[in-house]
Specification:
Elements (H helix, E strand, L loop, with lengths): L1 H23 L4 H21 L3 H29 L5 H30 L1 H22 L11 H8 L2 H21 L2 H9 L3 H25 L10 H16 L3 H29 L4 H29 L2 H19 L10
Helix pairs in contact: 1-3, 1-12, 2-3, 2-5, 3-12, 4-5, 4-9, 4-11, 6-12, 7-10, 7-11, 7-12, 7-13, 9-11, 10-11, 10-13, 12-13
Protein backbone atom coordinates (compact mmCIF):
# COMPACT_ATOMS: atom_id res chain seq x y z
CA UNK A 1 0.00 0.00 0.00
CA UNK A 2 2.90 2.36 0.70
CA UNK A 3 4.33 1.63 -2.74
CA UNK A 4 0.94 2.19 -4.38
CA UNK A 5 0.50 5.51 -2.56
CA UNK A 6 3.86 6.67 -3.93
CA UNK A 7 3.42 5.25 -7.44
CA UNK A 8 -0.01 6.81 -8.00
CA UNK A 9 1.51 10.27 -7.49
CA UNK A 10 4.10 9.51 -10.16
CA UNK A 11 1.52 8.19 -12.61
CA UNK A 12 -0.73 11.23 -12.21
CA UNK A 13 2.32 13.51 -12.48
CA UNK A 14 3.12 12.00 -15.89
CA UNK A 15 -0.48 12.45 -17.05
CA UNK A 16 -0.75 16.00 -15.71
CA UNK A 17 2.56 17.06 -17.24
CA UNK A 18 1.31 16.02 -20.69
CA UNK A 19 -2.17 17.51 -20.29
CA UNK A 20 -1.56 20.74 -18.38
CA UNK A 21 -0.67 23.06 -21.27
CA UNK A 22 -3.70 21.89 -23.26
CA UNK A 23 -6.08 21.85 -20.28
CA UNK A 24 -4.94 25.30 -19.11
CA UNK A 25 -5.71 26.74 -22.55
CA UNK A 26 -5.70 30.52 -22.43
CA UNK A 27 -5.79 30.80 -18.64
CA UNK A 28 -3.37 33.22 -17.05
CA UNK A 29 -0.37 31.15 -15.95
CA UNK A 30 -0.26 32.90 -12.58
CA UNK A 31 -3.65 31.45 -11.69
CA UNK A 32 -2.72 28.03 -13.04
CA UNK A 33 0.22 27.95 -10.62
CA UNK A 34 -2.04 29.19 -7.80
CA UNK A 35 -4.44 26.35 -8.64
CA UNK A 36 -1.58 23.83 -8.44
CA UNK A 37 -0.70 25.09 -4.95
CA UNK A 38 -4.37 24.88 -3.95
CA UNK A 39 -4.38 21.25 -5.11
CA UNK A 40 -1.35 20.64 -2.88
CA UNK A 41 -3.31 22.01 0.08
CA UNK A 42 -6.34 19.86 -0.79
CA UNK A 43 -4.09 16.80 -1.10
CA UNK A 44 -2.61 17.34 2.37
CA UNK A 45 -6.03 17.71 3.98
CA UNK A 46 -7.41 14.61 2.23
CA UNK A 47 -4.43 12.46 3.25
CA UNK A 48 -4.37 13.76 6.83
CA UNK A 49 -8.10 13.17 7.30
CA UNK A 50 -8.39 10.03 5.15
CA UNK A 51 -10.85 7.59 6.78
CA UNK A 52 -9.77 4.79 4.43
CA UNK A 53 -7.14 3.85 1.85
CA UNK A 54 -9.27 4.91 -1.14
CA UNK A 55 -9.48 8.52 0.10
CA UNK A 56 -5.76 8.52 0.81
CA UNK A 57 -5.11 7.41 -2.79
CA UNK A 58 -7.30 10.25 -4.10
CA UNK A 59 -5.24 12.70 -2.06
CA UNK A 60 -2.01 11.24 -3.44
CA UNK A 61 -3.38 11.43 -6.98
CA UNK A 62 -4.09 15.16 -6.48
CA UNK A 63 -0.50 15.55 -5.33
CA UNK A 64 0.65 13.98 -8.60
CA UNK A 65 -1.44 16.46 -10.60
CA UNK A 66 0.15 19.30 -8.63
CA UNK A 67 3.69 17.98 -9.19
CA UNK A 68 3.22 17.36 -12.91
CA UNK A 69 1.45 20.65 -13.52
CA UNK A 70 3.89 22.79 -11.58
CA UNK A 71 7.11 21.39 -12.98
CA UNK A 72 5.78 21.40 -16.55
CA UNK A 73 5.19 25.15 -16.38
CA UNK A 74 8.07 26.10 -14.09
CA UNK A 75 10.83 26.57 -16.67
CA UNK A 76 8.54 28.40 -19.11
CA UNK A 77 7.42 30.75 -16.32
CA UNK A 78 11.00 31.41 -15.22
CA UNK A 79 11.90 32.25 -18.83
CA UNK A 80 9.26 35.00 -18.62
CA UNK A 81 10.21 36.28 -15.15
CA UNK A 82 13.94 36.91 -15.69
CA UNK A 83 16.23 38.07 -18.53
CA UNK A 84 17.52 35.33 -20.84
CA UNK A 85 21.06 35.39 -19.42
CA UNK A 86 19.71 34.88 -15.88
CA UNK A 87 17.64 31.78 -16.67
CA UNK A 88 20.32 29.24 -15.56
CA UNK A 89 20.81 31.08 -12.25
CA UNK A 90 17.04 31.30 -11.69
CA UNK A 91 16.67 27.59 -12.43
CA UNK A 92 19.48 26.87 -9.97
CA UNK A 93 17.65 28.89 -7.32
CA UNK A 94 14.44 26.92 -7.91
CA UNK A 95 16.20 23.56 -7.83
CA UNK A 96 18.03 24.70 -4.72
CA UNK A 97 14.65 24.57 -3.00
CA UNK A 98 14.25 21.04 -4.27
CA UNK A 99 17.69 20.18 -2.87
CA UNK A 100 16.67 21.51 0.55
CA UNK A 101 13.57 19.31 0.44
CA UNK A 102 15.59 16.26 -0.59
CA UNK A 103 18.10 16.80 2.21
CA UNK A 104 15.82 17.59 5.12
CA UNK A 105 12.11 16.99 4.43
CA UNK A 106 12.14 13.18 4.52
CA UNK A 107 14.27 12.76 7.71
CA UNK A 108 12.41 15.57 9.52
CA UNK A 109 9.05 14.13 8.46
CA UNK A 110 10.09 10.66 9.56
CA UNK A 111 11.33 11.93 12.94
CA UNK A 112 8.19 13.96 13.63
CA UNK A 113 6.04 11.06 12.44
CA UNK A 114 7.63 8.82 15.06
CA UNK A 115 6.98 11.42 17.75
CA UNK A 116 3.47 12.56 16.88
CA UNK A 117 2.10 10.26 14.14
CA UNK A 118 1.99 10.59 10.37
CA UNK A 119 -1.41 12.33 10.25
CA UNK A 120 -0.12 15.11 12.50
CA UNK A 121 2.82 15.66 10.12
CA UNK A 122 0.42 16.20 7.21
CA UNK A 123 -1.77 18.52 9.29
CA UNK A 124 1.32 20.51 10.33
CA UNK A 125 2.17 21.09 6.66
CA UNK A 126 -1.21 22.60 5.78
CA UNK A 127 -0.55 26.11 7.24
CA UNK A 128 2.82 26.21 5.43
CA UNK A 129 1.15 25.48 2.11
CA UNK A 130 -1.65 27.95 2.90
CA UNK A 131 0.93 30.71 3.45
CA UNK A 132 2.63 29.64 0.20
CA UNK A 133 -0.72 29.91 -1.60
CA UNK A 134 -1.23 33.50 -0.36
CA UNK A 135 2.37 34.32 -1.34
CA UNK A 136 1.74 33.06 -4.88
CA UNK A 137 -1.28 35.36 -5.20
CA UNK A 138 0.63 38.37 -3.89
CA UNK A 139 4.07 37.91 -5.46
CA UNK A 140 3.52 36.49 -8.93
CA UNK A 141 2.87 39.04 -11.67
CA UNK A 142 0.13 38.48 -14.21
CA UNK A 143 1.31 35.93 -16.79
CA UNK A 144 -1.17 35.92 -19.68
CA UNK A 145 -1.07 32.79 -21.81
CA UNK A 146 0.96 33.18 -24.98
CA UNK A 147 0.53 31.13 -28.11
CA UNK A 148 -1.50 28.02 -27.25
CA UNK A 149 0.68 24.94 -27.07
CA UNK A 150 -1.18 21.64 -27.42
CA UNK A 151 -0.52 18.05 -28.48
CA UNK A 152 0.24 19.16 -32.02
CA UNK A 153 3.00 21.39 -30.70
CA UNK A 154 4.38 18.48 -28.68
CA UNK A 155 4.34 16.21 -31.72
CA UNK A 156 6.08 18.93 -33.69
CA UNK A 157 8.85 19.03 -31.09
CA UNK A 158 9.25 15.24 -31.19
CA UNK A 159 9.72 15.45 -34.97
CA UNK A 160 12.80 17.60 -34.45
CA UNK A 161 15.74 15.12 -34.37
CA UNK A 162 17.88 17.25 -32.06
CA UNK A 163 15.07 17.66 -29.48
CA UNK A 164 14.15 13.97 -29.56
CA UNK A 165 17.82 13.05 -29.10
CA UNK A 166 18.11 15.31 -26.08
CA UNK A 167 14.83 14.08 -24.61
CA UNK A 168 15.88 10.42 -24.82
CA UNK A 169 19.36 11.23 -23.48
CA UNK A 170 17.83 13.03 -20.49
CA UNK A 171 15.54 10.05 -19.85
CA UNK A 172 18.53 7.70 -19.85
CA UNK A 173 20.39 10.03 -17.48
CA UNK A 174 17.50 10.21 -15.01
CA UNK A 175 16.74 6.51 -15.40
CA UNK A 176 20.34 5.71 -14.54
CA UNK A 177 20.23 8.00 -11.50
CA UNK A 178 17.04 6.55 -10.04
CA UNK A 179 17.88 2.93 -10.80
CA UNK A 180 20.73 3.49 -8.37
CA UNK A 181 19.25 6.06 -5.96
CA UNK A 182 16.02 4.15 -5.24
CA UNK A 183 18.05 1.20 -3.91
CA UNK A 184 20.92 3.10 -2.30
CA UNK A 185 19.90 2.20 1.24
CA UNK A 186 20.04 -1.61 0.76
CA UNK A 187 23.44 -1.16 -0.92
CA UNK A 188 24.77 0.84 2.05
CA UNK A 189 23.38 -1.71 4.51
CA UNK A 190 24.47 -4.87 2.70
CA UNK A 191 27.70 -3.88 0.95
CA UNK A 192 29.04 -0.98 3.03
CA UNK A 193 27.74 -2.51 6.25
CA UNK A 194 26.49 0.87 7.46
CA UNK A 195 24.68 1.00 10.79
CA UNK A 196 21.94 3.55 11.49
CA UNK A 197 24.41 6.30 12.45
CA UNK A 198 26.70 5.81 9.45
CA UNK A 199 23.70 5.52 7.13
CA UNK A 200 22.27 8.82 8.41
CA UNK A 201 25.62 10.58 7.97
CA UNK A 202 26.05 9.28 4.42
CA UNK A 203 22.54 10.32 3.41
CA UNK A 204 23.09 13.75 4.98
CA UNK A 205 26.32 14.11 2.96
CA UNK A 206 24.37 13.19 -0.17
CA UNK A 207 21.66 15.76 0.55
CA UNK A 208 24.01 18.59 1.53
CA UNK A 209 26.07 18.04 -1.63
CA UNK A 210 22.95 19.00 -3.56
CA UNK A 211 23.38 22.59 -2.35
CA UNK A 212 26.85 22.67 -3.86
CA UNK A 213 25.48 21.32 -7.14
CA UNK A 214 22.79 23.97 -7.46
CA UNK A 215 25.17 26.77 -6.44
CA UNK A 216 27.84 25.67 -8.93
CA UNK A 217 25.39 25.17 -11.79
CA UNK A 218 23.86 28.61 -11.27
CA UNK A 219 27.27 30.25 -11.04
CA UNK A 220 29.11 28.54 -13.88
CA UNK A 221 26.41 27.50 -16.35
CA UNK A 222 26.50 30.22 -18.99
CA UNK A 223 26.24 30.33 -22.76
CA UNK A 224 26.61 27.09 -24.72
CA UNK A 225 25.32 24.14 -22.71
CA UNK A 226 26.60 21.46 -25.15
CA UNK A 227 29.85 20.83 -23.27
CA UNK A 228 27.94 20.06 -20.05
CA UNK A 229 25.28 17.66 -21.33
CA UNK A 230 27.56 14.63 -20.90
CA UNK A 231 28.61 15.58 -17.39
CA UNK A 232 25.66 14.15 -15.38
CA UNK A 233 25.77 10.68 -16.96
CA UNK A 234 29.58 10.66 -16.95
CA UNK A 235 30.09 11.71 -13.33
CA UNK A 236 27.09 9.96 -11.78
CA UNK A 237 27.65 6.78 -13.77
CA UNK A 238 31.33 6.90 -12.79
CA UNK A 239 30.42 7.32 -9.11
CA UNK A 240 28.02 4.36 -9.30
CA UNK A 241 30.80 2.29 -10.90
CA UNK A 242 33.15 3.43 -8.14
CA UNK A 243 30.67 2.25 -5.50
CA UNK A 244 30.77 -1.23 -7.02
CA UNK A 245 34.53 -1.38 -6.44
CA UNK A 246 34.89 0.73 -3.28
CA UNK A 247 31.54 0.08 -1.60
CA UNK A 248 33.15 -1.57 1.43
CA UNK A 249 34.83 1.67 2.56
CA UNK A 250 32.50 4.17 4.28
CA UNK A 251 34.95 7.01 3.60
CA UNK A 252 35.19 6.25 -0.13
CA UNK A 253 31.42 5.84 -0.28
CA UNK A 254 31.00 9.25 1.38
CA UNK A 255 33.23 10.94 -1.20
CA UNK A 256 31.46 9.25 -4.12
CA UNK A 257 28.01 10.09 -2.76
CA UNK A 258 29.04 13.74 -2.30
CA UNK A 259 30.06 13.93 -5.97
CA UNK A 260 26.91 12.06 -7.05
CA UNK A 261 24.64 14.29 -4.95
CA UNK A 262 26.15 17.52 -6.29
CA UNK A 263 25.70 16.37 -9.88
CA UNK A 264 22.20 15.04 -9.22
CA UNK A 265 20.85 18.53 -8.54
CA UNK A 266 23.04 20.16 -11.20
CA UNK A 267 21.59 17.70 -13.75
CA UNK A 268 18.16 19.34 -13.51
CA UNK A 269 19.60 22.79 -14.14
CA UNK A 270 21.74 21.57 -17.06
CA UNK A 271 18.94 19.77 -18.90
CA UNK A 272 16.30 22.44 -18.25
CA UNK A 273 18.73 25.08 -19.51
CA UNK A 274 19.21 22.93 -22.62
CA UNK A 275 15.43 22.89 -23.04
CA UNK A 276 15.13 26.66 -22.61
CA UNK A 277 17.77 27.23 -25.31
CA UNK A 278 16.65 24.60 -27.82
CA UNK A 279 12.84 24.80 -27.56
CA UNK A 280 12.48 28.50 -26.81
CA UNK A 281 9.66 28.80 -29.37
CA UNK A 282 7.49 26.28 -27.47
CA UNK A 283 8.68 26.28 -23.84
CA UNK A 284 5.43 25.04 -22.25
CA UNK A 285 5.07 22.09 -24.65
CA UNK A 286 8.76 21.27 -24.18
CA UNK A 287 8.39 21.52 -20.40
CA UNK A 288 5.44 19.12 -20.52
CA UNK A 289 7.44 16.59 -22.53
CA UNK A 290 10.51 16.96 -20.32
CA UNK A 291 8.62 16.48 -17.05
CA UNK A 292 6.64 13.52 -18.41
CA UNK A 293 9.85 11.93 -19.71
CA UNK A 294 11.66 12.49 -16.42
CA UNK A 295 8.80 11.14 -14.30
CA UNK A 296 8.46 8.11 -16.57
CA UNK A 297 12.20 7.41 -16.48
CA UNK A 298 12.22 7.70 -12.67
CA UNK A 299 9.35 5.20 -12.45
CA UNK A 300 10.88 2.81 -14.98
CA UNK A 301 14.34 3.12 -13.44
CA UNK A 302 12.95 2.23 -10.02
CA UNK A 303 11.03 -0.74 -11.46
CA UNK A 304 14.03 -2.03 -13.43
CA UNK A 305 16.27 -1.65 -10.39
CA UNK A 306 13.78 -3.59 -8.29
CA UNK A 307 13.65 -6.43 -10.82
CA UNK A 308 17.44 -6.66 -10.83
CA UNK A 309 17.56 -6.56 -7.03
CA UNK A 310 14.91 -9.27 -6.60
CA UNK A 311 16.15 -11.48 -9.45
CA UNK A 312 19.91 -11.11 -9.04
CA UNK A 313 21.52 -8.81 -6.47
CA UNK A 314 22.00 -5.21 -5.37
CA UNK A 315 25.22 -5.13 -7.41
CA UNK A 316 23.24 -6.06 -10.52
CA UNK A 317 20.99 -3.03 -9.86
CA UNK A 318 24.01 -0.74 -9.78
CA UNK A 319 25.46 -2.34 -12.93
CA UNK A 320 22.13 -1.65 -14.66
CA UNK A 321 22.46 2.01 -13.62
CA UNK A 322 25.96 2.20 -15.11
CA UNK A 323 24.74 0.68 -18.39
CA UNK A 324 22.00 3.31 -18.70
CA UNK A 325 24.53 6.07 -18.05
CA UNK A 326 26.77 4.62 -20.78
CA UNK A 327 23.85 4.60 -23.21
CA UNK A 328 23.19 8.28 -22.43
CA UNK A 329 26.83 9.14 -23.14
CA UNK A 330 26.77 7.31 -26.48
CA UNK A 331 23.61 9.17 -27.51
CA UNK A 332 24.89 12.61 -26.48
CA UNK A 333 28.23 12.12 -28.24
CA UNK A 334 30.21 15.36 -28.28
CA UNK A 335 27.18 17.32 -27.09
CA UNK A 336 26.25 18.81 -30.46
CA UNK A 337 23.60 16.24 -31.47
CA UNK A 338 20.91 17.57 -29.07
CA UNK A 339 21.41 21.18 -30.21
CA UNK A 340 19.19 22.89 -32.75
CA UNK A 341 20.90 23.89 -35.99
CA UNK A 342 22.20 27.44 -36.04
Amino acid sequence: QTGQAISISGLFAVAASLLITTAAGNWNRKWVLVAMTALMLASLVLVAAAPNFAVLMIGRALLGVCIGGFWSLATAVIMRLVPKDDVPRALALMYGGQAIAAAFAAPVGSYLGDLFGWREVFWALTPIVAVNLVWHVMALPSLPAGQRQDFQTMLGLLKRPYFLTGLIASMLSWGSAFTMFTYLRPFLERVTGANVTVLSVLLLVLGCAGFVGTWASGRFLKGDVARLLRLPALLMGGCTLGLLFLGGSPFAVGVLLALWGAMNTAMSVIWMTWMSQNADDAPEAAGSLMVAAIQASILLGAVAGGWLLDGLSIRATFIGSVILAGAALLLIGNGRRPLKPQ
